[in-house]
Amino acid sequence: MSERAKSMLNHRLFWPVAVLVVMLVANTVYRPGFLSIEVNNGHLYGTPIDILRLSAPLILVALGMTLVISTGGIDLSVGSTCAISGAIACLYISRAPDQNNLVTVFTALAMALGVALALGAWNGVLVSVIGIQPIIATLILMVAGRGLAQLVTEGQIITINSGPFRAIGLGHFLTLPLAIFIALGAALLIAGLTRRTALGMIVESVGGNREASRLAGIRSARIVFLVYVVSAACAAIAGFMMTANVSSADGNNTGLWVELDAILAVVIGGTSLAGGRFYLSGTILGALIIQTLTTTVYAMNISPQTALLFKAVVVIAVCLIQAPAFRAKFSRRGRGTPPPPTPSPQRQKEEVPA
Amino acid sequence: MTDSRPVLTMTGISKSFPGVRALHNVDFRLFPGEVHALMGENGAGKSTLIKVLTGVYGIDAGTITLSGEQVAFSGPMQASAAGVSTVYQEVNLCPNLSVAENIFIGREPRRFGAVHWGEVRRRARQLLARLDLDIDVTAPVASYSLAVQQMVAIARAIDVQAQVLILDEPTSSLDAGEVAQLFRIMRQLRDEGIAILFVTHFLDQVYGIADRITVLRNGTLVGEYPTAELPQLALVEKMIGKELDVLEGIEEHSRRDLAALEDGTPFVEVSQLSRKGAVAPFSLTIHAGEVVGLAGLLGSGRTEVARLFFGADRADRGEVAVSGKPAGLRNPVQAIERGIGFCSENRRAEGIIPDLSVRENMILAMQASRGWLRPIPRRRQDELVEQYIKALSIRPANPDVPVRNLSGGNQQKVLLARWLITEPRLLILDEPTRGIDVGAKAEIQKLVAQLSDGGMAVLFISAELEEVLRLSHKVAVMRDREMVAQLSNDDTVDADRVMQTIASGTPREEATR
């Protein structure tokens, strides 16, 4: 194998990209029109565009989750935060005299975002100041947040009819869905904030060894607090998209289980759940893989009963392919090496160059 | 003894990790019925060689032959089944299980499919009797001393008809009597024909027991020698690969007059500083260019004093003044702002960030004090890092490898570099030379001497009295969480006197203050 091919194979994004490509190819074989894109009314339409548009909320949530996981934490409350922020925005707009008024919509978004930031700060205080384990601290809001969202909507589904709000989910800009640009913008903003400054390294340092970071003069608690706030802000914007897609807020179902997909996207992207190094581009790929998988399930007409199982099998395969230990085992066997527990001296002599 | 055929032969072994060449073309032989010492500095490749042998790592090139047959173990279990057993430095037993359970865990004798407990206990007693150890095999391992635990680990290792017994720094936590007991057992096993591979940092132990010595340096083989033909000095030279003047040079480190130093302005003055449960009120003044040594036994409060100076812990009461101005020192950030740096004794837990690269670990403290909004330009980072890799001869000299791939001594140097980059005015070094080899130790001592000559104040903590006395202008003695004396390090002070002070709690004759 040439050096170049080897270094490509060892690149941490190689396997996520390969999985995505394989999925797209499989879809195209199954349904030749899968990759086709048409222009209609000055907008681009087609399955690839749909995948991008639908993955936008997940990308947003997963970006925030990446930073949280990098500090060694986890944020289970993002789904609830999506629901609460969506509900608050819809509630405000539904009560306004003119739902299409831009000022109204922006006020609604600002209010909802403000509440989400407060929720993130709550998580941040629980984890960084009080020192509760992240999984428990955010579980509180995950459960209580659904109730909070129900309180906001008074148990009803709030339906609105607001053009500007709807545009967040379904609008177009430069022929492409606006949601793609929002997700891309958030990604660039977070990438710029972390990689153009020293913030990324400091977050990784806190995740790698919190006490050592404190003794090196990093205000570790502040950094931990900050990532939960960022995560909540990302979740809020994702919540706007989710509710805008359907022009209604449902306290029970908006963003349900999105935290699990987001964690999965982060892990597929190569960030360790133990904290430390984080990879934003990997996370985005992970989110695209998950959305492509969901779309594939629908496109292949897999019955809803087996859809989840199908998804699970693919996810297990993706995770195994990414695990170096598994690949090493697989490729060794592929070369005809005897399995380890039965070392016959003769065969080993063949393979170890003297 | 060594005229028979070797039981184990390793030929042309090479092994690399990303960015690090751990072993390069190393040969190693082990004869039945010998104790063979494997020597080398930290990072020389001793542990890697053992791990390659026992199948923890695969090899990139080379062959391993055991009793005439070529082998490649897939892991320690398989290696021990084939007769190669290892006892590691840190005792690898389950403390809450009984002695007998620990010996037979994973290979319990069975009857009708169930564990035959009677047999387990009987055979455990038998095995320990072979080692002259008469203890209750049903008691939990944790109830015995470290030495006994080490013996239990050895009993476990030799039960499997071992031909080769690897002892990886078995003595580092044992006292002299326990070492003697271990050596007696090693000799007994050797006489039974077992080949023992012995790794240690203690030179006298090598000369006390080893028949032959193999020396590694930087992942390559230096040579194999009969112990009788290799004088101690020659061994050290072969290990560190340079003349010993490094160590001797430090002895000549000019001890400038303490009086002259104390005429200068004090850098830090603390008075009646204390923290409940950690350290009783103490007062100490450190001047620019002064090395203050902290001596005392483990647990005497040395580290606690250092942590108060750095704000790692908060003092309950007392005053601190830095450069004559009152200062809070309530957290590390405040201490760093005032020019104080702190290398913790606990490298792993409180020092390195294992995932981050050597470069990132080095610039961390400087970056933290600048704030995240002002990243250090990449070019400046590269300059600084290259400068310190060279100055401290950090190996491998590659700034981009994760710091966890470095050996202990090199990690320590990276931490030193982290603080030196911040150009501190007071550097607190808590056991900077613990667990690292002679060469790195000498380099670090030399560095401390140089820094103080350059005007930096140093608070130096070490369990080794000689090291403290060699470097310090003033020695503060700790006992039972109390600072009992401050001795000016002149001709009247030697290790005996410091030890007496530690023992009696009062300085004999005149203390400096």
From TrEMBL, chain A:
InterPro entries: ABC_transp_permease
GO cellular component: plasma membrane
Region (Disordered): 331-354
Location in or out of the cell: Cell membrane
Primary location: membrane
Presence of keyword Transmembrane: yes
GO molecular function, one term: transmembrane transporter activity
Bilayer-spanning residue ranges: 12-31, 51-69, 76-94, 100-119, 126-149, 169-191, 223-242, 254-271, 278-300, 306-326
Keywords, ordered alphabetically: Cell membrane, Membrane, Transmembrane, Transmembrane helix
Entry keyword annotation includes Glycosyltransferase: no
Membrane topology value: Multi-pass membrane protein
This protein's name: Sugar ABC transporter permease
TrEMBL record, chain B:
Keyword annotations of the record: ATP-binding, Cell membrane, Membrane, Nucleotide-binding, Repeat, Translocase, Transport
Entry coiled-coil feature ranges: none
InterPro entries according to UniProt: AAA+_ATPase (IPR003593), ABC_carbohydrate_import_ATPase (IPR050107), ABC_transporter-like_ATP-bd (IPR003439), ABC_transporter-like_CS (IPR017871), P-loop_NTPase (IPR027417)
GO molecular function: ATP binding; ATP hydrolysis activity
Record localization: Cell membrane
Protein origin, superkingdom: Bacteria
Location, primary (coarse class): membrane
A Pfam family matched in the record: ABC_tran
Bilayer disposition of the protein: Peripheral membrane protein
Cited SMART domains: AAA (SM00382)
Gene Ontology, cellular component aspect: plasma membrane
Entry annotated with the keyword Lyase: no
PANTHER family reported in the protein's UniProt record: CARBOHYDRATE TRANSPORT ATP-BINDING PROTEIN MG119-RELATED (PTHR43790), GALACTOFURANOSE TRANSPORTER ATP-BINDING PROTEIN YTFR (PTHR43790:SF9)
Name of the protein described by the UniProt record: Sugar ABC transporter ATP-binding protein
Source organism (scientific name): Micromonospora sonchi
